[in-house]
Amino acid sequence: MATKSRSVVCLHLTLFFLVLVLVAADVDLFGENGPRQPPPSTPHPAKRKRPLPSITPPAPPQVPPPSTNSPAQLTGPPTSTPPPVQSTRRPPSTLPARIIDHYILALTWPWGFCNTSSCSANPVPDRFTIHGLWPVGPPSPGQKATTAKNSLHHCKTGQPLDKRITGSLSGLLEYYWPNVTTMRPADAEKFWEHEYMKHGSCCVPPLTQKEYFERPIELLQRYDILEQLLVNGNVKAGTPTKVSTIMKSFSGRQPSDIKEPIVKCRQSSKTTTKWYLTELYLCLDSSAQQFVNCSNIYKANNACGQSSRNIGGSVI
Q: How far is it, in rounded angstroms, from Cα 266 to Cα 298?
């Protein structure tokens, strides 16, 4: 009886495993559709390399625009500080602007200068040229009038001449402010530096270096000094002229006109009987823009000794 039971159990197990095999083989047990057809085979796609993920940089933080009503907020000093740059220029002057009473615009008459001094200019200019712009301080306590002793010169301004300024004005300076002795540009540059160091150093400030050189040129461009002598003063070329006649040529009727100048003359280097006009000193106010009467400042308003003295020859 036990043997028969084991046989039945084995039979059942055999049938169970058979069913599993048939199911795994995908066989229709009921035979209605026959064996199932496998799905059409599709070629296996080629393996593709997986693309690297794109890296998008993070957006910069939004910084609000600086307010127009308040200064920008600094985020702090840099992590490293560069070494300081060693400047070769002197620091600007810390001296206050000097008190200028007036200026003297010194003009040279080249023909008279070359007849009384060593002069190698060829040709000699036939126009008035600039000698310099000289600042004059106010009278000292107890002094009734300004004299040559009040002239300011060789001041320690702390501002050496910036040659870029004279370089930018070189064309005008060579024409209006030449070195009459030689008329060479190289000598003119030394002349400009000399005039600035001696006189310009005492009026920078209140003037700037550029204004120191530009103001005299602007005045000579505005006023034809030689024409005033020939037309207003009725000075005739080649005829000796009295000092008083030259002084009256600049009547100063209008506020902007040239006022009575200081006349300078010298004796001829060849003969002591002739005197030649060498320079005119025109006086300017403390701004170096308006003419003032030199006779109101200096007691002796000419440097020729006598207002009735004849000067000239064939130099004008």
A: 20
